[in-house]
Amino acid sequence: MSEDQLYPIIDFDPDPEAIISPFMNETPPDFPEHVVMCFFKEVIEKVAAERDVKTVYVARSEVGPVPFYEMEIEGKRLGFFQALVGAPLAAGFMEKAITMGGKKFVVCGGSGVLNPELTVGHLLIPTTAVRDEGTSYHYLPPAFEIELNQRVVKRIETVVKDEGLEYLLTKTWTTDAFYRETKRRVDKFRKAGCDGVEMEASALAAVAEFRGVEFGALFYGGDVVHADGWDHRGWNDRTEIRENLFWLAVKACLGL
Questions:
Q1: Which domains does the chain have, with CATH numbers?
Q2: pLDDT for 149-206, tens place per residue?
Q3: Which residue, of 16, 62, 134, 147, has the fewest CB within 10 Å?
Q4: CA nearest 104: which of 200, 31, 18?
Q5: How far apart, in Å, are the Cα atoms of 73 and each of 37, 211, 216?
């Protein structure tokens, strides 16, 4: 029995056409080529309420409706929507945005950190993501990690640097199973160079590479995951950090 029969996850099929597509039997609406995916629902809702935005499309899933918005900033069209947690949904909604016309993506969100010396709010710009999730293996052949688009990485770094903010260019560990972050695996991936741990980056990078679009990510350090235990640190209550992160992502994205 071959390895791909033993382990279905490594049976990569490069065929770009699948039986199910994002807009089957319907014409996709026109969406901007510059797109920000933000994991913070309250930030998306605040921007949508306070800005002159247009609802381009509403995606449906069992978690409820997810509006895809458009607004104009300094004469440029920007698309944005809430990215849903976990690689499969995040990747699926990115596919919808690509089908509608998205070409340049920046995602912003929170990330666990493996280095307890990193304070809450410290910005992480992933340069590489470890593929410890399943979705990316349906977009690219098996590999330990994936390199993020360096042009987008440099653009995000420039924006953050211009704002005078502390940041770290680093590798991130993307995992499907946050209840399986064992001491051995935390130690393994920290030794491999990972300062952050999250659930979507490697999958989104794989979708972008497979579909021929640009993608980068900007996270802020949140809870600590290390050998001595877990510290929540109230990371998801940092309202100002979360909103500022969105606007940093917007500035980076529109500069691509």
A1: 29-254 (3.40.50.1580)
A2: 999 999 999 999 999 988 999 999 999 999 998 989 989 999 999 999 999 999 999 9
A3: 62
A4: 31
A5: 16, 26, 20
Burial (CB count <10 Å: 0-12, 13-18, 19+), residue 164: exposed
- What pTM did the predictor assign? 0.91
- In this structure, the strands spanning 104-113 and 214-226 are parallel
Determine the 3-state secondary structure of 37 from DSSP: strand
Greatest pairwise CA separation for the chain in angstroms: 59
Cβ partners under 8 Å of residue 32, min gap 6 = 70, 77, 78, 79, 101, 102
Structure tokens at 196: 């952050």
Q: How far apart are the C-alpha atoms of 219 and 61, rounded to whole Å?
A: 25
CA torsion sign, 180 to 183 to 187 to 193?
Answer: positive
What gap in Å lies between CA 83 and CA 106, rounded to an integer? Answer: 11
